[in-house]
Amino acid sequence: MLKTFYALLATSLLLSAQAATLFGETVDKTVVIPVSQLLQPANYLDKEVTISGTVDSVCSKQGCWMRFSTEDASLPFRIKVRDGDMVFPLSAKGKTAYATGTVRLWPQGEEEPDAYQLYPTAVEIAE
Question: Which of 23, 43, 60, 90 could form a cystine bridge with 86, CB 3.0-4.6 A?
Answer without folding.
Answer: 23
